[in-house]
């Protein structure tokens, strides 16, 4: 059995080869074997972030239809994602606000 990489989008381990591309049966993502390299996420200070880290927001963030998120707000247990919009790469739940996507460039690791 081949040793194929996990899906870079959803981390599914049941990836299969279809000739020239690798396909994930769970999310349908198609990718090349070289695309499966682990992306390194870094905060505003250059520290490496991993799933489950706690971070602090480094600047006031305007939120459409809500009050702004203040600089210094602590966010626990972040989840790093492959950005669908190409920008927001952190999924998190902010206390008193709810679920939100953030950029790694506006947070620092605690």
Automatic annotation (TrEMBL):
It comes from the Bacteria. Residues 4-32 form the Protein YjdM N-terminal domain. It holds the Pfam family YjdM. Transmembrane segments: none annotated. Residues 42-110 form the Protein YjdM C-terminal domain. Belongs to the YjdM family. This is Alkylphosphonate utilization protein. It comes from Pseudodesulfovibrio hydrargyri.
């Amino acid at each position: 059995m081949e040793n194929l990489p996990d899906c870079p989008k959803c981390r599914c381990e049941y990836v299969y080869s279809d000739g020239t591309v690798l396909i994930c049966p769970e999310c349908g993502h198609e990718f090349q074997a070289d695309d499966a390299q682990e992306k390194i996420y870094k905060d505003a200070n250059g520290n490496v972030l991993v799933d489950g880290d706690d971070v602090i927001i480094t600047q006031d963030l305007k939120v459409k239809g809500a009050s702004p998120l203040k600089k210094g707000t602590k966010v626990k247990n972040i989840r790093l994602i492959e950005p669908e919009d190409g920008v927001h790469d952190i999924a998190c739940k902010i206390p008193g606000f709810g679920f939100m996507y953030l950029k790694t460039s506006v947070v620092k690791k605690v």
